[in-house]
Design a protein that fits this description.
Elements lengths: L3 H4 L13 E5 L2 E4 L5 H23 L6 H23 L4 H8 L2 H14 L1 H4 L15 E2 L5 H10 L10 H4 L1 H14 L13 E2 L1
Helix pairs in contact: 4-9, 5-9, 7-9
Length: 198
């Protein structure tokens, strides 16, 4: 089809004129159709709403963003669940994994780690005298119960003291939760891997 007019479909039975042809290529015709008004109003309404939302919540810091509110509510739920689990008594892998999600428990564990463990494991657990806790290799097992048992009972043959009596049950759990959050983070400058991969 060399002529664009030949490609235009025959006029419809309506009284309104057909829209002009904007482009024709290989038998495919692009017509200059007007967008439906409801679509245009929806588009401009969405733009106006987004601008107002941005100004209200971000520029003037009025109100709490939905993402922050969700994070706050979720953190509260996790803290309540962690507290309930602590009261249950028996330590399970599920309990330790749940404690890794509780910010308060992890922060407590991090503080205890900084006070008692950095001499051997260095800041952030990257290893010094003791092994690197940020890789996937573990001397005494990398499962939650292995980590908890190592902290609580120690391995005196490898200069790992037993912290159970000194720290108490709740704080041992907190340190275990913190150490579990380090697993797989591969801190820069960490000690070479030791033990088996988990």
């Amino acid at each position: 089809m060399n002529n664009v007019e030949e490609a235009v479909p025959p006029p419809s039975d309506r009284n309104t004129p057909d829209p002009p042809v904007v482009h024709e290529y290989d038998g495919i015709i692009e017509l200059d159709q007007r967008l439906p008004r409801w679509w245009v109003y929806t588009l401009f309404g969405a733009i106006a709403f987004a601008a107002g939302y941005w100004v209200y919540f971000h520029s003037f810091d009025r109100g709490e963003l939905a993402s922050r509110e969700y994070g706050r509510i979720k953190a509260k739920e996790i803290a309540e669940e962690a507290e309930r689990i602590k009261q249950a008594g028996t330590v399970t892998p599920e309990m330790l994994v749940m404690l890794t999600k509780d910010r308060g428990t992890v922060e407590q564990g991090q503080e205890l780690f900084s006070q008692n463990c950095v001499t051997c494991h260095s800041e952030g657990g990257k290893g010094n005298i003791g092994p690197n806790l940020t890789d996937d290799y573990w001397l005494h097992g990398g499962e939650p119960m292995n980590v908890y048992g190592t902290i609580r009972d120690g391995f005196l043959s490898k200069q790992m003291p037993a912290w159970g009596k000194q720290l108490g049950e709740d704080r041992v759990r907190a340190v275990a939760a913190y150490v579990l959050t380090l697993k797989g983070t591969n801190a820069a400058g960490g000690k070479a891997p030791q033990g088996e991969k988990h």
